[in-house]
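Entry type: protein chain
Record version: 2
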Amino acid sequence: MSKKLKVDFFHDAICGWCYVLSPRLRQLTTELNLDVQHHAFALSPSKAEVQSQFGSMKQAKHIILGHWQQCAMADDKNRINVEGMRKQNFEYPTSMPGLLACKAAMKQGGQQEYWDYFDAVTHAHMSENRNIADLNVLADIAVEVGLNKQRFLQDFASQDRLREVKNDRKLARKFDIQSTPSLVINDQWLLSGALSLKELRKQLKQIKRELSNDYEILCAH
């Protein structure tokens, strides 16, 4: 088997394009022998930043749901429920609760549990239209993916989670990442946006070929 290709996946729990990309990356993880590492990238870290960017929380929701419609058209399985979220009366969530919850999940099961929880929390947000800013909802999702609820709550409350999110942001700056989803391949190549399954496979295979050629040249010397 060929050496695993390292993929650093930068994403946000409220990012529709991340929700679209994640199952495609999952499919290719086995197919192309990928080692996927997950990183938080908060698009809307606080309510103050959302209000500054959009003018108000109400206006933010209106604009963001327009983005959801674009995501819905690109999603492979028609999972995104735009009108369902439009009917909800809670404020559109900021990034941090969902990302801190992903980090708490990782404390119980490493990178794989992070990914399972990430997929579950984005599904709760974009398909089921649950309020992922509510800690009770986040804890329920933890139980749904098989985590211990009390430990999840303890890990969520730790300041270490915030430090982990901030460390991910520092790593993102190192790679000059400005948006989500972003994939960094072997610390060298940056793939941005929700690439189609076909295009993502093509790009990753091309990188594997380049690495293989580099290795052969190295061995020849």
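Comment: The two ends are 24 Å apart (CA to CA).
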